[in-house]
Please model this.
Amino acid sequence: MLNYAATISLDGYVANSNADFQWAAPSDEVLAHHLQRMHQVTTQILGRRVYGLMKHWSTVCEQAAHSTAATEFAKRWVAIDKIVVSNTLSKVDFSANGSRLVRELTLRDIRHMVARNDGVTQIFGPTTAAEALRTGMVDP
Model:
């Protein structure tokens, strides 16, 4: 199964005018929703910008200043495999096994990932998911 996730404002924006996502910092209630949604996700495909935003979760478990909801979300996020799609990054800084950097991602690549994945594969971010969304690959 392939699904899509994005944080978007009510007026249709993913980032602010400075390409910043910080307006969408999640509350504990939102984190609980995401944790429930991610329960079956075993692989997440991220673009460069979403990777930049999400890599913060790799270190949350090591810090005491976070809520229980944030810590639980971070544990789940660290446990899943991550595929980062970028032509400009030279490496990704994830500790989880199975996480890697790819230079390009074709529909064929996505189909292959979904077919060999026991859980849900999730594309997170509008640019990375655009072609899969246009072609109807994403499950409703």
About this structure: The longest strand covers residues 41-47. The chain has five helices and five strands. The chain has one domain: 2-134. Residues 28 and 67 are 7 Å apart (CA to CA).
